[in-house]
Amino acid sequence: xxxxxxxxxxxxxxxxxxxxxxxxxxxxxxxxxxxxxxxxxxxxxxxxxxxxxxxxxxxxxxxxxxxxxxxxxxxxxxxxxxxxxxxxxxxxxxxxxxxxxxxxxxxxxxxxxxxxxxxxxxxx
Length: 124
Prior knowledge:
Layout: E1 5-6, H1 8-21, E2 26-32, E3 37-42, H2 46-52, H3 69-82, E4 85-92, E5 98-99, E6 110-111, E7 122-123
């Protein structure tokens, strides 16, 4: 797999989203071509799904991510319409111990995420 080189403005947008959404996981896409690089954040609907059905969606957004399907499809359609490419999928997983948003009998009260070793993208 070829390493991704991000523009500083794109990296800053990704970091800003992660800071806004902390302590929840967040995700998005980087789309573009040789001349264009754009960040497309995607809403994490895991909390909504967990609230609607805590048995089927036992984890909340502190430890899980579920893309909003209409937003996901809209980005894929935009890529096709503008003849761009999907350069990368961005995933931010908070690596901290935290109390779960709403403890239930169906999941542990505390979640601990490992701190994965993920190479940082190059920033240009």
